[in-house]
């Protein structure tokens, strides 16, 4: 899985080194043509995050179903119910940490001086 976190930054074309002298002329950096540099965001992170939320939701439903089966007395394995509960708990904690880091980054961007 690849995540292009900085896909919005246009690539810079660098000129080739003309000489190896100690005092060389300053290089002129230029952005690539606008049509090739700017691309629409692909939304890969949004898709990944929504898939993770759906997966966590499924794990929570499975854990809830296991607890219900345990309460009724139909649970086949207490160990499997506990494993499902721990997986759901850890997945939820991961999603909450990703959310918290995103919100922190958003707040930091909002506080930047332009």
List keywords for this structure.
114 residues; mainly alpha; two-stranded antiparallel ribbon; 3 helices; 4% strand; elongated
Question: Would you write up a description of this structure?
Answer:
By secondary structure, the chain is mainly alpha-helical. It has one domain. The protein is built from 3 helices and 2 strands; from the N terminus they run ββααα. The chain has helices at 34-37, 44-72, 78-110, and strands at 12-13, 30-31. A two-stranded antiparallel ribbon has the order 1-2. Helix 2 packs antiparallel against helix 3. The longest helix is centred in the C-terminal third of the chain and has 33 residues, at 78-110. Mean pLDDT is 76; it is low at 1-10 and 29-33.
Topology:
Elements lengths: L11 E2 L16 E2 L2 H4 L6 H29 L5 H33 L4
Antiparallel strand pairs: 1-2
In short:
With about 110 residues, the protein is mainly alpha-helical.
Number of domains: 1
Q: Give the termini distance in whole angstroms.
A: 34 Å
Mean pLDDT: 76
Order of helices and strands: EEHHH
Structural class: mainly alpha
Tell me the Rg in angstroms: 25 Å
Low-confidence stretches: 1-10, 29-33
Estimate what percentage of residues fall within beta strands: under 5%
């Amino acid at each position: 899985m690849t995540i292009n976190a900085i896909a919005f930054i246009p690539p810079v074309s660098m000129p080739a080194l003309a000489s190896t002298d100690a005092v060389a002329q300053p290089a002129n950096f230029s952005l690539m043509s606008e049509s090739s540099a700017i691309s629409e965001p692909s939304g890969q992170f949004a898709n990944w995050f929504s898939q993770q939320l759906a997966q966590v939701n499924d794990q929570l439903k499975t854990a809830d179903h296991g607890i219900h089966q345990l309460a009724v007395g139909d649970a086949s394995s207490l160990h499997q119910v506990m494993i499902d509960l721990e997986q759901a708990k850890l997945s939820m904690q991961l999603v909450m940490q990703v959310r918290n880091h995103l919100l922190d980054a958003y707040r930091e961007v909002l506080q930047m001086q332009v």
